[in-house]
């Protein structure tokens, strides 16, 4: 299993929790971890030692910063959010697929079923956090200019079909779209993903593979009470701590925060 992260030094501790939780809950033994980075992470030796201790191999990938000149960035959306869009240009050519994960994700069940799905000619498998109502879908299609996209996709969990992506994705096309959209990009990486490639994405269920922890009440209502805490613990693979309130912050008391802190304690040990 190939795993991809795109982080800076501020997110090394969180990355370690995400990786530890995945390895603790999967039967896969051969796990390769790739981190796209620029500049080179100051904690690379620590990361390598951590991966060795938990049975993974570490492969740092240094990104050419010239590839991302003039992209819109903020404190919340740093340059690293764009790396996943061009990952196929930097990863070894003998890799045919890789699973990208944000570093604010916790794995609580086996991920093998997702990693091994038949992707055919689809470039990505991803989940949507929108309600897929006709109005929401229509607004996003109009805003992004892709009227064939089935949904608006969250980029925090991306199964990437590298063979297809190497032929499909164009650096020039991405940069041209960024320049054309300007400040109309609300969530830049997700807007680009949906706008340029959303019509070919395999839609995976977010309640299983990209559960937004802010919306447990929404999930319960959507499922008429079926997707309660017990259901999530038995079925959900990835809890995604989206938004500004993060579980590693001391005052966070969300329903899944204590579970995250438990895994953080184990990873730290």
UniProtKB/TrEMBL annotation:
Top-level taxonomic group: Bacteria
CDD domains: GT8_A4GalT_like
Keyword Metal-binding (UniProt): yes
Keywords in alphabetical order: Glycosyltransferase, Metal-binding, Transferase
Any one Gene Ontology molecular-function term assigned to this protein's record: glycosyltransferase activity
Keyword Coiled coil: no
Protein name as catalogued: Glycosyltransferase family 8 protein
Native organism: Aerococcus kribbianus
